[in-house]
Amino acid sequence: MLRVVLAEDAVLLRAGLVELLGRVGHRVVAAVGDAAELAGAVDAERPDVVITDVRMPPDFRDEGLRAAVELRSRHRGLPVLVLSQYVATAYATQLFSNEASTDGGLGYLLKDRVGEVADFLDALERVAGGQTVLDPEVVRVLLLQRTADEPLKRLTPREREVLGLMAEGLNNQSIAQRLTVTEASVVKHSSNIFMKLDLDPVEGNRRVLAVLAYLRGRGNAEVSPPTGR
pTM for this structure? Predict the structure, then answer.
């Protein structure tokens, strides 16, 4: 059972998530509608994981995202799963580029993924377990935004494919199954990725560092969301 703090201003979605999480054995210890309430609930409840929307009152910009970044700075290692209505890669970059991003689980999913219940619950449990999860659609958009002067151009097409799956949070075994290759091949490609991106192989969580380099290599590119909610 996970103790969850949920922040979502849409009442119906919030109620649906509370019901869904309760049905599978998790406990929502607080369900709130804005970033200020989120901060208070986390300080009071010290949950196992936080789920928060990006956009919340009063301005419906990035209040939830900024709250998540602050909470992870204040509570080191706090697992957070951020939900977004739109493929806004600048939000993901901001989230994963924070200095506390390598401590504890961290995820960024599109809200559409909630409808794929098994995938959503798997992502939540992986984040609570300390893993990194990035929505496949966000990864797809990032791949489409590559430019000639990016360091990621050093990677071969297969290495970029492996890096994309790493960015989604898949482990070596899962990547091997997805690509129908051996796990040893994935390990070799991963080693090449770390070398080509100038990552120290003994520095922290190499997979998370690769994801950070992956995001930073895309700069601040963003698919602009529609106006309003």
Answer: 0.81
